[in-house]
Amino acid sequence: MSKILYIIADGMGDLPIEQLNRKTPLAYAYKPNIDHLLSNAACAFPSVLGRLAPQSDAGVLADLGYDPTKYSTGRGWFECLGLGMAPEDGDLSVRVNFGEVENGTLKSVRTYMSKEELRQLEDEINEKVKLPVDFDFKAGEGYRAGLVLRKGGTKFSQYVSNNEPGYEPKFYRGGKKLSFASKITSKKISKISAIKNEAKNTAGLLNSFIEKAVDVVRKSECYSRRKAAGSQLPNYVFLRDAAVGDPKLPPINSRYGHGWTAVAGMPLEKGIAKAAGMSLVETSELEDVNEDLKNKADKLAVAMSRSDAVYLHIKQTDSASHLGKYADKYAIIEAIDRIIFSRAIRLVNIGRGDTIVFTCDHATSCEQMRHINSNIPVLIVNRRFGRISDFSERACSRSPLRGIKKAIDIMPFVTGL
Ligand SMILES: [Zn+2]
Fold this sequence. Notes:
The chain is of the alpha/beta class. It has helices spanning 25-28, 32-37, 56-63, 68-71, 75-82, 115-128, 200-218, 221-229, 252-256, 267-275, 289-306, 316-322, 326-347, 393-398, 410-415, and strands spanning 4-9, 41-44, 92-102, 105-108, 135-139, 144-149, 167-172, 176-181, 236-244, 260-263, 279-280, 309-314, 355-359, 363-365, 370-372, 378-381. β10, α10 (267-275) and β11 form a beta-alpha-beta unit. The longest helix is centred in the last third of the chain and has 22 residues, at 326-347. Bound molecules: zinc ion (ZN).
């Protein structure tokens, strides 16, 4: 059976940037290995969620062929699943950030800490916070964590707001839920509120968790040490995207054929891969981009040796965009070409009928430093296609494949080749 290698570079799509000769970072990047593949390639320029700017959960779900508005019960489920917290249907899963508040107003929603510091806070919160329901709290990477309230006899509701500013929940038929970035209009810290009456108890439990966790964190040794050192403080917790219930994604292997394996280091993407029934090659995110990509290339080789379809997720393109670092962004795309594609070319056999897909989950604008609703560039390499001249947003928009109008069309198209 022919193989599929599906590479998603987070937030890779962008808009033209003045300093890059009005090119996007993808168009500007020198990418000889990708260019070499253009002799058998086609491109597409689908929309992900129409006029809405997607978060990564919606984008990755769509890229993998699942309509996020029909399947997502909320990002919290995937985050907690990816953190290894094993949420069960009916539990309440929430994404958490450690952040900093000053005089009751928001200073930052992200307090970056070492793995060790995060583990210490995780232990203290699990030990000292008492709620009327059982819960697990687990630290992730940087400033991130997950919270799962175990259902016991409690009926939770996902109809709650976020106390993390800048993210508004949007609900779809059947209680399905996504959230979207919004402008932060007020720096005042707000409580979590019930959007429906049924969610009053859930909102109360989450507010109680916030109050108690903040108290524990402010009394922690980690906090005192950082305060003495003048470092960014973890003195608040921000919760968002509470999910109740298993999104019950139809298994990807039966839905789209092949036996899928994922190489992903971030909890969200690991969680989506697990929820889709993929096997996982364990990996984590390394700080140095080149080292991280080398590690991912090694893991990719392992995955390709045991599986006929592999999803590889690369995070750094999005991180650079959020910081407005367009020069870093094109350099990362060049590193993906140099480190991942030089290896990928040897792991697949285009002549035999294998396919490479290279795209992103959403576009992230370096100039605006946020996700945008632009269509995404998609490259599909397969022997049935002729030559294309270039892989960039512009080239994709000029001669897109007719069969791929939306990101959710990519998987049926590619697996039907
Ligand atoms: Zn993303």
